Amino acid sequence: MTCDRLCDLGYDEAQVEEALEMFQNCETKAAEFLHLLTQFNEMGFQQNAIKEVLLVHENHRERALEELMMRAA
Hints:
Layout: H1 2-8, H2 13-22, H3 27-42, H4 47-56, H5 61-72
């Protein structure tokens, strides 16, 4: 059910399943992660780097973005 709800928001099923696994099926944290992943991906950052910094910074948008920008510099 949680997977279906997140997929209905337009997220890729494989990414939804991965996010739910990373956050022990917490729909709120998984949704936040997927939203930020999409947002940062659209900014041109690499998906693997995005995932790493979001996990390290516990989905904290500003800290994750700051680290991504420092890595790209």
